[in-house]
Amino acid sequence: MADRLSAREAIALLSDDFHQLPVAEGAYAPDGPLAWQGYDASRARATERTGEDESVVCGRARIDGAPAVLIAFEFCFLGGSLGERTGDRLEAAYTYARAHRLPVVSLVATGGSRMQEGMLALTQLQRVARQSALTRAAGLPQLAVLRDPTTGGGWATLGAGADVVLALPGVQVGFAGSRVRPPEADPAAYTAQAQLAAGAIDAVVRPQELRETVGLWLALLTAPSTEPAPPPPALGTSDRLPDTGWSAVQRARSPERPRAQAYLDAYFTRRSAIGGDRCGGTDDGMLCGFGFSSGSDSRSASGSGAGSGEHALGGRAIAYAAQTGTATRPAGYRTASRLIRLADRLGIPVLTLVDTPGAANDAEAERQGVGAAIAELFGAVATARTPLTTLLIGEGGSGGALALAAPGNTWATPDSYFSVIAPELAAAILKRPPEEAPGTADQLRVRPQDLVALGVVRGIVSGGAATSPPPPG
Hints:
Number of strands: 17
Largest sheet: 9 strands, mixed
Helix content: 25-40%
Structural class: alpha/beta
Number of helices: 18
Radius of gyration: 25 Å
């Protein structure tokens, strides 16, 4: 079990500049709305023990230079439970955040809804969900840091409902609290590590790294821009274009060809990853996150709540979704959709790197809804208002690759190809012998220069910063 920090100790991990918001609440009826005998005495003991008069502390803070509204749960106050007054304070904090255009950071440690207030306590979850939705619609980011424990309605609203979810090591995380789980339940399933593996949280962060990590996230998510991300320069060893379709395929499949990780390292000065599709899955073959671009042509971020990210860290904020050369799994497509929708809501441009032989087509992928996941990504790309830029860096295998490509703003490297289907599979479908696959590749016109001539991509990116379409042929 992780050490249980008090609300004030958790706040101190993030900020040395915290100012509590004023509280305006009416008096409780004796022993609360249900006249629960002894409830007033329990609250009084909780106040004496913790120094707090409710289970949440809300205020304005600066986190590594970035302003935010900070919500911290005090677990030792009736298990960090949510009651009517908790709802009052949470609603006030969210309202303040929207009025002042500030992101919301929640330090969650709760056992759920307060039994002594019955259904009135449970309905606070609807109240919190509405405030979160209004804040999301206002284009403001929400981050959650999960402390020990994070269970029940607090996990299902402030925790799992955040845009970026971080957790301290070893904490309990799950909808079911420790006293209400089935007796045969595996306790390891109710941990931050298990939730990370299941794609429900983005990262486990050590306490000493939390301030810097949250500060970076706030800088990244509060730096909108209307300018498209410039495509990265090609990282291959040669700008020479392939002579044949088959040579284009072979170059794209070469193990020596630079992959997504190299492109991201060259493109960004700093970046933070999101992980998981929030549906129980992860895919190492899809890298998603936000970063500050390192290119000299990066333009200034326009101002918003935090206003410090681009000036302090260099470059401008750009979201990225990058395939790593493997067959993309349903969780990968869903994670990319999540990334694009978040960037779209926050007004942050998106860079996608296409590199996959195609979508995973095994039985498990079908059971996980690969078709629906691809459809979701096509929809996210098609409806995005923020500018999208795509660079084809390797294989572009059918719809599993096209789903990640920006219509009208896709570029290619000399080491890439795009095809309606892999040449070998096309030959098989056409009942041609395997040795005719190279000739089929030529017929499919998969080379980068063919793609330009066909109008599928805008141009070919060289090893320099400039991009230009080559002559056809």
